[in-house]
Design brief:
Blueprint (H helix, E strand, L loop, with lengths): L1 H27 L1 E4 L1 H11 L1 H21 L5 E10 L3 E3 L9 E3 L4 E14 L3 H67 L5 H36 L6 E4 L13 H11 L1 H22 L4 E12 L12 E11 L4 H70 L5 H35 L4
Parallel strand pairs: 1-6
Antiparallel strand pairs: 2-5, 3-4, 5-7, 7-8
Helix pairs in contact: 2-4, 3-4, 4-5, 4-7, 4-9, 6-8, 7-8, 8-9
Subcellular location: Cell outer membrane
Keywords: Cell outer membrane, Coiled coil, Membrane, Signal, Transmembrane, Transmembrane beta strand, Transport
Organism: Mucilaginibacter conchicola
Length: 443
């Protein structure tokens, strides 16, 4: 019986430990993520984006606050006071006054309302300004999102490139180990010198050292990507090693430039700021316009001491009508404010033109770099074919004793280098493509 209990307890303990280990592997193990998955995590956990979202919400509330200015202003009030005696100086200021009987307690309540009808259009202009600011904040948030996605893409591609390099290097190390065995066999047979073996071993040692460097590059890129996504540092990410971006259907430079003028974040922000300066100029001019509004007020008081004859009773009095005012001083006070608003508008228009120039430069740079990267891929493919054929030829000639060990090692290095260059060029195409999409505001 005791053995049976011990067996059951041990089985339960093993099950518990197994589940705990599985849970730990799930949370801190390797995750295979596509670039879209990385973008979702990076956008969801970026603190700067959270700040931008709060700023957008604040701007939207300011729009609602500006619209609330269209509502009538309503005020209510009440008062209680003690009234002193009222002396009447019938015999002069220095004579003995007679006391006029008054009621010493007064009560009152009043309410007034004002509805703006026209104030130079400044209410509507203020609403338009707040809407423009809210739109600019939305664009800034989209711009930050694009920058976060671009940063995540660069880190993802860096990790992808390092992993591809590691795979190529492992393949080359395996090949050189087999090649070293053949060289050692030739030395045993007295065909080659020991120096050939030593040089091959030295080359293999260098490759293994390079492997350690690449492993460190992978660890660094992995941690940077974890931080970008808001994940723990020990999460190992396995990216897709296949080239995911199809650049075969690229548009012309003019098409990308047209898209950038319509969608580039910097251009849309500058356009919104220009509209804001125009609205501020109209608002400054609106201060010289008359103000017209409806008003009404009603007052209930006790006693009636406003009109003669007085009476010790409650009384009510109401007024309603149209009120119009015009600030004559505004004609010369607001003149300088209008001039300032005009100068700020001209400054912003110049800045907007400069932003458009920078957009054109950015798109042209990204487009040319992308074309350059695509051309490098084609050249790298040709180089790989030539290096592979050269390596095959030198390998045959070396083992047939018609070439030197240095020729063999150089051919091996050249083949590995061209493979590295091809992988790097393919990754660079993706990187430049994302740079171009970010420049036109489409990332």
């Amino acid at each position: 019986m005791n053995h049976r209990r011990y067996y059951i307890a041990a089985t339960l303990a093993l099950l518990f430990l197994n589940r705990a280990a599985l849970a730990q592997n799930t949370t801190t193990g390797e995750q295979q993520l596509s670039l879209t998955d990385v973008w979702e995590k990076a956008v969801a956990n970026n603190k700067q984006l959270h700040i931008k979202q709060l700023q957008v919400q604040t701007a939207q509330e300011e729009v609602k606050d500006a619209k609330a200015e269209r509502l009538p202003e309503i005020n209510v009030g009440a008062e209680y006071a003690r009234v002193s005696n009222m002396p009447v100086f019938e015999n002069g200021l220095f004579g003995t006054p007679s006391q006029f009987p008054v009621l010493h307690s007064t009560y009152g309540g009043d309410a007034d309302a004002y509805l703006n009808i026209y104030n130079g259009g400044r209410t509507n202009l203020n609403i338009a300004q707040k809407k423009t600011l809210a739109n600019v904040q939305q664009i800034r948030m989209a711009q930050t999102t694009s920058q976060v996605k671009l940063q995540a893409a660069m880190l993802y591609l860096q990790l992808q490139k390092s992993i591809v390099f590691r795979q190529l290097l492992l393949s080359d190390i395996a090949f050189q180990e087999k090649q070293l065995q053949k060289i050692e066999q030739l030395r045993k047979n007295g065909v080659v010198l020991k120096s050939d073996v030593l040089r091959a071993q030295l080359q293999l040692s260098k490759q293994k050292l390079s492997l350690n460097t690449i492993d460190n590059d992978i660890a660094i890129a992995n941690q940077q990507l974890d931080v970008t996504m808001g994940e723990p540092d020990d999460i190992r990410i396995k990216p897709d090693t296949a080239v995911a971006v199809d650049t075969a259907g690229l548009k012309s430079y003019n098409d990308y430039l047209s898209d950038a003028y319509q969608h580039a974040f910097a251009g849309k922000i500058s356009e919104g700021e220009t509209q804001l300066r125009e609205l501020q100029l109209k608002s400054a001019k609106g201060k010289n316009m008359p103000k017209v509004g409806l008003f009404a007020n009603y007052k209930l008081s006790y006693p009636q001491i406003m009109f003669y004859p007085y009476s010790p009773y409650f009384y009510g009095l109401g007024l309603a009508g149209v009120r119009a005012t015009f600030s004559i001083s505004g004609l010369y006070i607001n003149r300088h404010k209008i001039k300032v608003a005009e100068l700020e508008l001209k400054t912003q228009e110049t800045e907007h033109s400069d932003v458009q120039d920078n957009i054109r430069l950015s798109v042209n740079n990204a487009y040319l770099r992308l074309q350059e990267a695509r051309h490098k891929v084609e050249v790298a493919r040709t180089n790989v074919k030539q290096a592979r054929e050269n390596s095959r030829i030198v390998n045959n000639t070396y083992f047939n004793q018609t070439s030197l060990i240095t020729d063999l090692l150089d051919a091996n290095n050249a083949l590995l280098q061209t493979r590295f260059e091809l992988a790097a060029a393919q990754i660079a195409v993706q990187a430049q493509y994302f740079q171009l999409q970010n420049a036109i505001g489409n990332l």
